[in-house]
Amino acid sequence: MPYRHGHYYVGFVLLVILVGFWASYWSPIANVPLAFHVHAISSTTWLLLLIIQSVAIHRRSNAFHKQMGRASFALFPFLILGFVMIIDVSAQRYVKGESEFILHNGPAFGIGMVIAIAAYLTLFYQALKNRRNIKLHAGYMLATPLILFESPFSRVMDSLFPWMNVIGSGGLHTVQDTIVISDGMAVVFAMTLYFMDRKNGAPWLVASFFMALQAVVMWNAPFIPQFGALFGAYAQIPLGATAIAGIAAGGLAGWLGWRAGGVPAKRAAATA
After folding, report:
1. What is each CA distance from 212 to 81, 119, 204, 258, 263, in whole angstroms?
2. Are 136 and 203 in contact (CB under 8 A)?
3. Which sign does the torsion angle of CA 41, 25, 85, 156 carry?
4. Separation CA 105–CA 222 (nearest Å)
5. For 170, phi and psi rounded to 5 degrees?
6. Residue 22 DSSP one-character state
7. Which has the closest alpha carbon to 14: 149, 126, 111, 133?
8. 0.90 cut: is pTM over it?
9. How far, CA to CA in Å, does 141 sit from each of 44, 52, 120?
């Protein structure tokens, strides 16, 4: 089976999330918005699901692996919902002018999470579409934690390893420096895996594209006034509408991916 040590890598991302969000979420957990809980629970559960699936398939527990795979159909829309709710919180804080920090970085956070959602929808769809190709299926599923990496590690960098910020913009833009560097590290990791097996490396190319796009767009977003206007307009959309859209998008990605990966019509007819 491919990626024999994949569960250790996912576990490392989970550890980074615990450390990176300790000050902003885990420590004050009783006093944070509901959106943070939905995002934290769905993202953490997603990583735990990947760990369980990786361990199960390498222990030849194929039936259990498939059962956990079915659970992803229910979990994935919940994962997308968490991202949508976080975007709404950021948008509301932006229009209220809650702080200079959110006024400068809010639109960047919003567009960054939109790109993350697009990445997740694409990777999950491709994982299901290619579920009959073990290497591609595993690659697409294991690429999803990389999309989660930049946010917590940028916080770890800022608090514990500030020397890693070689860009040094300073001031309110410092967080964008750490995001770019975190995304860059993840791209290097993904491209290393791609060059180790280019024949089955498409998942890592796709993940690298989205992470590179996220890094470039987020770093430049504070200097593009149109992003601020769009984010302000987004804040006027009721959360109920965006939440339904997010859940529907997650469910649709799963349904379309499953259908696309079904037994080809000619093959099905030949075995009938």
Report:
1. 23, 11, 12, 28, 34
2. yes
3. negative
4. 6
5. 80, 165
6. I
7. 149
8. yes
9. 15, 12, 9
| Separation CA 30–CA 267 (nearest Å) | 55
- Rounded CA-CA distance 68/53 in Å is 7
Around Cβ 13, how many Cβ atoms within 10 Å? 22
Pair of tokens at residue 78:
């919940």
- 98: tokens are 């809650």
Query: Residue 131: phi, psi to the nearest 5?
Result: -70, -15
Percent of the chain surpassing pLDDT 70: 96
Q: How far apart are CA 123 and CA 141, in angstroms?
A: 7
SS3 255: helix
Q: What residues have CB less than 8 Å from 73, skipping those under 6 apart?
A: 251, 254, 258
Structure tokens at 82: 């968490």
Q: How many CB atoms lie within 10 A of CB 160?
A: 11
Sign for the CA dihedral angle at 56, 247, 236, 232 comes to positive
**238 by DSSP, 3-state: which?**
coil
Tell me: the pLDDT tens digits for 163-192?
999 999 999 999 999 999 999 999 999 999
